[in-house]
Amino acid sequence: MRDTTKHQGQRKQLVESLRQKGIKDKRVLEVMGGVPRHLFMDPSLVNFAYVDKAYPIAADQTISQPYTVAYQTELLQLEPTSKVLEIGTGSGYQTAVLLGITPHVYTVERQQLLFKKTQRLIVKLGLRPKKHLFGDGYLGYEEAAPYDRIIVTAAAPSLPKALLNQLDIGGKLIIPLGEEEQFMMRYTKTGVNSFDKEKFGRFRFVPLLQSKN
Ligand code: SAH
């Protein structure tokens, strides 16, 4: 499927609506104006690609709402040199947004079906994360630690300790915490065993899976 002028126009409108909803980071808005979300959607829902909502993808998961992607990415305060770990690759849409800002992206997905599907897609689109892994995001990815930034795109009932451990000092972790409903949290590591905690808006994410399914 191609990226047409119609898609580009719809994306411009989407970016404008994100701006109106309070997203300010110019780099985030610019990148989201360039990532063809329709290519990450389930084919039956492609006409809704530029509606600011989450939609179902394979394996009972969802492609995040563009506003949520923008919100989390803004909170990350990414630099073009940042090394980022993403937990919950899903459709790969958030991954593509991260890659628009920094080439140092590592991403982990728990569902094998989605992992394989997204693997084919990212190759096809020429996206090159440093690693796209099939694994358990609760454990992070120790091999490439420490990270400057970690983003979790599924709801965790509590903070996975491994993720904080894999953060560099000065690094930031963005994670939606809670069961039914979540608060977006940002942890900034201030020392080997210390961190600052900030609480942001309310969201609804699919759960971070605890064990193999
Ligand atoms: N950023 C993705 C969001 C997908 S929804 C997108 O916009 O498409 C959350 C994703 O987290 C799902 O794909 C789900 O399978 C994955 N996930 C759930 N538990 C996980 C875990 N323990 N480790 C890694 N990924 C997990």
Q: Can you give a write-up of this model?
A:
The chain has 213 residues and is of the alpha/beta class. The protein has a single domain (53-203), classed as 3-Layer(aba) Sandwich (Rossmann fold). Helices cover 28% and strands 25% of the residues. It has 6 helices and 9 strands, in the order H-H-E-E-H-E-H-E-H-E-E-H-E-E-E. It has helices at 5-20, 26-32, 66-76, 93-99, 112-124, 161-165; strands at residues 55-56, 62-63, 84-87, 105-109, 131-134, 147-152, 167-177, 182-191, 194-203. Strands 5-4-3-6-7-8-9 form a 7-stranded mixed beta sheet. The chain has a two-stranded antiparallel sheet with strand order 1-2. Strand 6 (147-152), helix 6 (161-165) and strand 7 (167-177) form a beta-alpha-beta unit. It is globular and about 50 Å long. It starts with a helix and ends in a 10-residue tail after the last strand. It binds S-adenosyl-L-homocysteine.
